[in-house]
Fold:
Amino acid sequence: VKQFDLLDKVFTKDAQLIYLLGEDLYKFTMENGVEFYKAFLYKCYWTCHLISIPLIDFKVDGASTSSRVTATHIQKREDGSQNIWIVSGAYQDEFVRGSDGWLISKRIANAPYVEGDFLTEGVREFKSPPPIKDVERS
Structure:
């Protein structure tokens, strides 16, 4: 839903984020994570991330999880045609428990399967999901 203001309810302020998407590697901290996510997701008309139930390993000072993910990203080119980019792999997350509950302190997203290309130019930007009237079929 592109509610970037809620990321601090999911990640610690200093969370380490590593995304390996096919051959492309991205490393950043949550400090600049919002800008990273916006750069990708504003270029998407629609996304759907199917995430499995995680395997959880509780530790004395936190927890780690592993879950499979397949993420479909639909982009609209300037001419109105669609571009579809699919990545599939796993999230490996490290959690810490604080006064506000469990937060992710480290995420490794390893997606060795990539289908299509993510377009950085020639696509429309969407800062919020499309209105339902735009996706209704008559």
In short: The CA atoms of residues 46 and 135 lie 10 Å apart.
